[in-house]
Amino acid sequence: MLDTILNSIVPVFFVIALGWFSGKKNIVSKEYKKAFADYVMMFSFPLHLFISSAKANPKTLLDIKVISSFALALMGLYVIAFIIQKHIFKYDSRKAAQGSMVCAFPNMAFMGIPVLTSLIGPEALISVAIGNIITSLFMIPITTIILESKNATASPMEIIKSSLINCIKKPLIIAPILGLLCSVFHITMPKVIAHSCELIGKSTSGVSLFSLGLIMASYTVVLSRQVCFNIFMKNILQPILMGGLIILFNLKGVMAKEILLLCAMPTATISTMFGLKYGVSEVESSSSAILGTIFSIVTLSLLISYIL
User: Fold this and answer.
1) pTM of the full predicted structure?
2) Which residues fall within 8 angstroms of residue 5, CB to CB, at 6 or more apart?
3) What is the mean pLDDT of residues 115-122?
4) 139 bridge partner residues
5) Domains in the chain and their CATH numbers?
């Protein structure tokens, strides 16, 4: 058991630390963090998802109970976090929405892939694809609408329409959908195409972790009430909520373990990007991502030892 935990966790944080060290010592300029992130989000990760979805069993991809429970864990915590921050912390809607995204958006792309593939194998990417579609169709558009509400010249419906169109056009949405179609209609890809996609897709884990370290090296860390709240909600409460939903929906097998592990991931890097883009809780968002990632060494190790 200890070997399993070490083999899945230590390599992940070693590569993150390597990226952080490279950024701090300016071996690799921190200015390249966006280029690395773009490479993962626009090319290697979508192709990785495409191949995995195309090879998957359609019943696994379209499992209503898995999709429903995962969506409730992600969006349910988002709503809970928003209500607490809006009505108890007395934050305005924009700050509450940004904080809710930090609390509820797991780092599926940069940490989920390497951890799950190490523990379960390449087939674990199916749960990542499902989670990515849920966040892209619901969490990202809702947060965008609220964050743009202050200076928006367009109507709420126009913002919703624009946000959904932008999300749907992204490779991270198109790729798993195309893969799903290949799976459902039993379309076999030529080996040369499959091997070409796999070649770049396999670079996702290493590059994503290195770029995460580079991103972490770019920001100042503070420990505040907001940061502690974010880390508690993301690293502790969300996996507990997901565990309860797994019991409620009577989910069993590998997929249940995958979505539970994904919910235990620290906050997604994209949540920090939103804070920077809209000028809302930038320091708190980046600090939550950095400290939450460090804290996840403990929480992920405990969870892995429990479920395996």
Assistant:
1) 0.84
2) 301, 304, 305
3) 84
4) none
5) 2-307 (1.20.1530)
